[in-house]
Design a protein that fits this description.
- By secondary structure, the protein is mainly beta.
- The protein folds into four domains: 8-104, Immunoglobulin-like, CATH 2.60.40.10; 107-216, Immunoglobulins (Immunoglobulin-like, Sandwich), CATH 2.60.40.10; 222-308, Immunoglobulins (Immunoglobulin-like, Sandwich), CATH 2.60.40; 318-442, Immunoglobulin-like (Sandwich), CATH 2.60.40.
- It is built from two helices and 35 strands.
- The protein has helices at residues 358-372, 422-425; strands spanning 17-20, 23-26, 31-39, 42-46, 54-55, 59-61, 64-70, 79-87, 92-99, 109-111, 116-119, 126-133, 137-140, 145-148, 155-156, 164-166, 175-183, 193-201, 210-216, 222-229, 234-240, 246-252, 267-269, 273-277, 285-293, 299-308, 318-325, 329-336, 342-348, 381-384, 388-393, 399-406, 411-412, 417-420, 438-442.
- The strands form eight sheets. Strands 2-9-8-4-6 form a five-stranded mixed beta sheet, with no helix packed on it. A five-stranded antiparallel beta sheet has the order 10-12-17-14-15, with helices on one face.
- β32 (399-406) and β33 (411-412) form a beta hairpin.
- It is elongated.
- The chain starts with 16 loop residues before the first strand and ends in a 14-residue tail after the last strand.
Length: 456
């Protein structure tokens, strides 16, 4: 018995089918490319079902140059399509079409309000992280932290598994999303809980990772937390451990050798208060020493940090001008100087804020922006990139604060501008100050005025 075997492609040794090039790559934005089919018979092209590519034709005879087009992609990862080209005599060729994922050709993922995140010792001590993004993201963290996007459902984090994901969209414009964080339970240990908060693109847990150090303080620790620096003032709040009832502080213009020198504490403040040190020398380094004491006046650990005040010269300023009250509404204008590229403006009628120092006002403005983002123009505080004329229907005393930023918009100025209506509609009552001193105020002050004072 004679057995003869023959492949499909050997029916005619003189026939041919080739495609040039064999692979075409597109950017995420899409586009058009050409390719050539060389064949001495008729041919057809099979496109994978569901594909959104366009091709000049899917069948023809002989040699032909064709155009192929792809729209912009919304896919996260690179995609690949394989087009089957088949001749009438059953010869086969493939054209591979690749398109880069949008996120592989540029995406934004950053944290704008923290370098490190510090938590007090109690359970459910909260903070938030502002995520600037135009891509989906996922977050990893220590298991003693919980996270939430809506503030209702809380999820325990994991250092190896992404338990929280956000940014479920891809956009050409950057947006800011708020990730809420809180401690899962009380830290009853003497030592701090330590960990790392990691933010990564949803498509890859190794590329473009943003890492923040994070800690939950041990029972006798106290440390300065959110800091605001102006030219002549430092302001911060504090985080403290479970047993800390008083927070002693000392500010020095030089580093103290604690082995040979005794620290003379300037005073103390209470948890959940902010503290301000004004009348400082500008462009100078100061060291803030902090010591937590418990109810029995016992203390265990001291922390300190160095901070440099800013300059008051050539600062970004959005000056408040032409303020007028017509009996029912306030009007004013803001004017950016040449160093200012954007500024935050805060308007309030809460008199609790009226006698705060410039630094304390800047701290509260920064605190609101860092924890809630910038509100719209009809809200209490917002961001502007141009001069404005503003009208506010209000028949009470008010205070305006502007804080400019220069450079690329990330360098807040060392000075603010402020306007208090009571300075012009009744006698000023702000006391003059001439030495370094500390002022404390509740951190979580009510956002609304407690007692209205009608303007006469």
């Amino acid at each position: 018995m004679l057995v003869i075997s023959c492949s499909e492609n050997s029916s005619d040794d003189t026939s041919y089918l080739t495609v040039t090039p064999e692979t075409i790559s597109f950017p995420a934005s899409g586009g058009s490319e050409s390719f050539k089919i060389s064949c001495n018979t008729s041919w057809s092209i099979t496109i994978p079902e569901g594909s959104n590519l366009w091709i000049t034709t899917t069948n023809g005879t002989g040699d032909r140059e064709l155009q192929i087009s792809l729209p912009a992609t919304k896919n996260v990862k690179e995609t690949e399509l394989r087009l089957l080209i088949k001749s009438a005599d059953n010869r086969v060729a493939n054209l591979v079409v690749k398109q880069e994922g949008m996120l592989l050709t540029g995406g934004t993922l950053d944290v704008t309000n923290h370098m490190n995140v510090l938590f007090g010792g109690n359970a459910h001590d909260m903070d938030s992280v502002q995520i600037l993004c135009n891509i989906p993201w996922k977050v990893y963290g220590p298991e003693w932290l919980e996270a939430s996007i809506d503030g209702k459902k809380w999820t325990t984090l994991s250092s190896t598994r992404a338990m929280i994901e956000g940014g479920s969209f891809i956009s050409e414009e950057n947006v800011t999303e708020l990730l809420l964080l809180r401690t899962k339970s009380t830290n009853t240990e003497e030592d701090n809980y330590q960990g790392t908060l990691k933010l990564a693109p949803a498509y890859d847990n190794t590329a473009d990772i943003v890492e923040l150090g994070t800690a939950q303080l041990g029972r006798h620790y106290a440390a300065a937390n959110s800091l605001t620096v102006l030219a002549n003032e430092l302001v911060c709040d504090f985080k403290c451990g479970l047993d800390v009832t008083k927070i002693y502080f000392h500010i020095s213009d030089h580093m103290i050798n604690t082995q040979t020198e005794t620290i003379e504490w300037d005073g103390y403040t209470l948890p959940n208060y902010i503290n301000s040190w004004d009348e400082l020398e500008e462009d100078h380094i100061y060291y803030l020493y902090v010591l937590g004491k418990d109810a029995a006046n016992g203390y265990y650990n001291m922390t300190y940090n160095g901070y440099q005040t800013l300059s008051s010269k050539n600062q970004a300023i959005a000056s408040i001008q032409n303020v007028n009250y017509d009996g029912s509404k306030w009007t004013w204008a803001t004017k950016m100087n040449s160093n200012c590229v954007l500024y935050a403006m805060w308007k309030t009628y809460n008199e609790d804020y009226f006698d705060y120092t410039d630094g304390m006002l800047a701290w509260f403005l920064s605190y609101m922006m860092h924890n809630h983002g910038y509100e719209g123009e009809d809200k209490e505080y917002c961001m502007y990139t141009a001069d404005i004329t503003y009208s506010w229907k209000l028949d009470y005393h008010m205070q305006l604060v502007t804080w400019g930023a220069g450079g690329n918009g990330n360098h807040l100025a060392g000075v603010i501008d402020r306007y208090r209506s009571i300075d012009h509609y009744q006698a000023p009552n702000r006391a003059a100050r001439g030495h370094i001193h500390a002022v404390s105020a509740p951190r979580d002050i009510d956002a609304f005025k407690k007692a209205f004072v009608r303007i006469k």
